[in-house]
Write a structure and sequence with these properties.
Bound molecules: zinc ion
Number of helices: 2
Distance between the termini: 22 Å
Helix content: 10-25%
Radius of gyration: 17 Å
Strand content: 25-35%
Order of helices and strands: HEHEEEE
Largest sheet: 3 strands, mixed
Length: 107
């Protein structure tokens, strides 16, 4: 979270902005991040920076797999990446591990 705040503050400064109003993060469902814990860390780390008082918005990214057998893309709702068409278990999801800064609103 520290890195994310640093990145956001650096970006705000580069734009000549003095305050960050909103930070939008894209977080994959497999990233292992608890939104409540993240919000708490955000307040702690963001204090006395450009991000103090900013609204934290979390966009949840679904877990998407590409089946290696039939090529179907499907969303995984649990920890078994099972193709609903052919039953192949896929090893590595295409998305769902994201932890990235999506957007900033500054002034
Ligand atoms: Zn398949």
């Amino acid at each position: 979270m520290q890195d994310t705040i640093d990145l956001a503050c650096n970006h705000a400064r580069a734009c000549g902005a003095r305050r960050i109003h909103r930070i939008v993060l894209r977080i994959g469902r497999l990233a292992g991040v608890e939104p409540e814990a993240l919000a708490f860390a955000f307040e702690a780390v963001g204090a006395d920076t450009e991000a103090e008082g900013a609204e934290l918005v979390i966009e949840s990214v679904p877990v998407i797999c590409d089946c290696s057998t039939c090529g179907r893309s499907f969303e995984c709702l649990n920890s078994v990446f099972l193709c609903p068409d052919c039953g192949t278990v896929c090893g590595k999801p295409r998305s769902g591990m994201e932890f990235e800064l999506a957007r900033l609103e500054v002034s």
